[in-house]
Records
---
Amino acid sequence: MAPTITAAWTNSHDHLALNHKLRKPLVEKLRRERINSSIEQLKSLLGPEFLKQQPDSKLEKADILEMTVCFLKELLQQHQQQRRLLEHLDELQTSSEQKLREAGSSPLSPAVQTSITKDQNPEKTLWRPW
């Protein structure tokens, strides 16, 4: 009985190995197609950037990847600068609001405060064109 099990296992193993050998080129082809598709998408997304750099030459995949990395680094740097600027503006606003509270004054001038107070009591001062 042992030789039959061994022969069946060998046939099964050979079948799997053959199946793997047949599938490997197809899997590799699909992998390359995915890579090429993604590179083409990058190229189209960054189209104006590419035309600016090398308008007449055909770009290699490595060129497209390098330019994408440079573009993303610039974008990240801009984002970080904007975030720092917004944080600084928030700090300035918080500081100004705190100083106003500490001084006990309103950010509105006395004339504007008087005007608002008058507008809250329209019965006292109605303007009529006639």
---
Amino acid sequence: MTTLALGMPTVRRSPAEAPPTDGRPDVPGLIDRFGRVAHDLRISITSACSLRCTYCMPAEGLPVIPRDELLSATEIARLVGIAVHDLGVREVRFTGGEPLTRGDLVDIIALSAAAAPGTPLSMTTNGIGLDRSAQALKDAGLARVNVSLDTLDREHFTRLTRRDRLPRVLDGIAAAHRAGLGPLKINAVAMRETLHDAPALLAWAIDHGCRLRFIEQMPLDADETWKRDNMVAAEELLEVLRTRFTLEAAGRDDPSAPAEEWLVDGGPATGGIIASGTRSFCSACDRTRLTAEGTVRSCLFGDDETDLRGMLRAGASDAELADRGRAAMWGKQAGHGIDAADFVRPARSMGGIGG
């Protein structure tokens, strides 16, 4: 695979090349060779972002994807309909980059809601601009949001995101609450420089009716500075949180859920930790991804991508698109392999893949 700078693959499986499906059972769902079935679809709609978080974006941002190479609102909605009606997808989440940077976001939500009535539609966002759009997104059919917020310390926030915009994020969270975009979840990447801000963030989330989930940093940063020995592991994070709270393990409500839950001070409030690196949940993964350019990416850490945009624009039928999606998922790898000696990080960074 050849690449541009900043980890943006330029060669992917062409529309004419279907992934091999030897041994695949004749079932409609998105099953892989290890028996996992994908029910959760993450759709990136842009690689543009209003922040430059060090664990995701380079300081200069990712290369701009030409508008005609992005899936349109109509194309996204068509694929949502196929995913739900033909492939067994039960939940759709829109990601980026930052979804709020797309001027047609409300149209994307409205058309997708019409294509798959009753399917929960959610969005991962940094919250900047949500104060102006939360109600319109709710009216269009968005059910809830996950907001990325790593610290409440304004100086630490500015250093981590390379932008002084913490008040805008907090305004966005407040607007999401007013619009009823809940349950509202906060995603916080556990970083060395903000580790001791974690107890205050958990207390704030509980006080403000948010469900906080800490996430171990993954080797998906565009600057490629991630080092295993500098990563804040779940156990270290728990030690810091326990300086302020009593935490009791509550497990997972859903075996496929990435977050392990912890009762805080006896409950009912909880906090979650997504320990992708130290407590891998790959064996229960039920997610698949669609990049902003319309390629299926079956694993966050797998660089093999299968093009659907070319098929869409060449006049492929819904059945043909569904079959290509099934084939792409059949080849999903067993896991990320971060601990393996021969681990190779993905060519794309998180901002280019979609969270």
---
Amino acid sequence: MTPPSHARTRPAAAAALAAGALLLAGCGSAVTPAPGQTGTGQAVTVENCGREVTVEGAPEAAVGMHPAQTELLLRLGLADRLAGQAQAQQQALPDDVAPLAEEVPVLGGAMPPSREDLLAVEPDFVYSPTTYEFTAEQGFAGIDQLEQAGAAVYVATGGCADRRMTGEVTDLFDDLENVGEIFGVRAEAEDLVTESEATLDEVAAAVADVEPLRVAQVYVEGTTLQAIGAGIEHDILRRAGADNVYGPDDPAFAEFFAATITPESLAAAEPDALVFSVYDEEHEAATRDYLTTTFPDMPAVRKDRLIAVSSADVFPGTLGNISIVRDIAERLYPSAF
């Protein structure tokens, strides 16, 4: 993944992740049960990131390659189907589902597991937020290697390269539909979609009549400043009622959803609020200090509209995509809720 929106908990990983983001493969996601099958454990074919993935029977040894994917599998009632949970140090599981994962082996720490560690648990289904987790050059198991070992690989729709620049929060619903079909838990998946849609509808109604604030989304590592102008992150701000300072029509974001900017250019934009992703409390404190000392006269700083969000919640294919839409909207327009 990439540091701007999905930074690992180790700053040293940022450079590798920026390169890894460029390895994301194509997108697209649709479920096609095999002829005569119902999708409740029988063969299911999924079009995912430009690939056709066929699952013969409901998986019994799944691995969530990020806590966001592990959480989704747990909420679908699949705790007994989990053979591993990866990158567990990226994000704590919510309190209500964490006990369900206590006996699930942890693979790796803040980074994806090594090829050997992942293959050791003999997975038959690997569910990842992006294709970075399968970068062989980083020592991870490649998609081809996993398929040769008998594992189906599914990547969150919003984490596919062809979708990365145009991704939307609702891409999560495609993933829930697909995974629900693959595991034969369609009702549970539909319930999560319904709950998420209700949250988005509630936010949309609350911000429908607000005077939109101009909001910039940034990522700070040390003194390097990046702006986020496309993809799921852009859609999150839009749904929260923000007038995005940076957008996909800007030349800087023609080929990638994040771009390095100068402090002078951000100051000149005079945003009313700043949203920034962080990977831990220390990173949040450092980012706040940088923003407040670098931009003391900026409206966002003067009016104390510095909104931190967890980098894990902007990973593609996570329920966090839904929750931070509401969180950001409430903090931008508290009187609307």
---
Amino acid sequence: MRIVIDNVEKRFGDAKKKEVTALKNINFSIEEQEFVVLVGPSGCGKSTLLNIVGGLLSPSQGEVYFEGKQDKDPTLGIVFQEIALLPWRTVYQNVIYGLEERGASKKECQEIGQHYIDMVGLTGFEKAYPKQLSGGMKQRAGIARALAVEPDLLLMDEPFSALDAQTRTIMQEELLTIWNRTKLSTLYVTHNIQEAVYLADRVIVLSRHPGEIKEIIKIDLPRMGRDQEKYRQQFERYSDQIWNLIRHDAQAAIKEA
């Protein structure tokens, strides 16, 4: 299945009732089993675009469609920066929430829920409540919840940005391990250029407002082990290429902040 973002534009009204264009002329696709990362300066519309792809916002122009899904609506899994686990539900109850909403049987919930809890490394914490979990563990639970509905597309909006540097690195590694087991088509938003190069099959670089595609960069590195010394020079070349594309916009965004 292929996800097509066709000529998408998004306009909003600002506080002075003036129309502002957030996204303009956005055209790309996400191939089956492809990991696509959106990167760009603050205010470029990355999260807006992800929300449009996820059906949480409607485009002002253009469309998003899933090739080969005419018979039924696609299933989406979404992981936000704010994990938004339900505090009154245990890890297990949070993970199976989407399954329950779909009307899955108790047996299905148990089998699928436990499978993904084990996959994200939370075995033994099924009965724990969110307040008892570390930040990384909460994100693992959020990822398991998104995976449990076995989505056609996984959407991730800066899921590790609130974590400390060490936990973030660990979570990136774990996400790649999980992705290699599930092979889910994924759209991932980040500010972090190194994270983009580490995770992506392709990086889509957006310009500052209105957000337009500056360049789409194919990351020609092995899926696993990109942080090894033998790939360091190539990794840094990709990082420099992306930074040079967004440097001016990022500096301008800081001045406006």
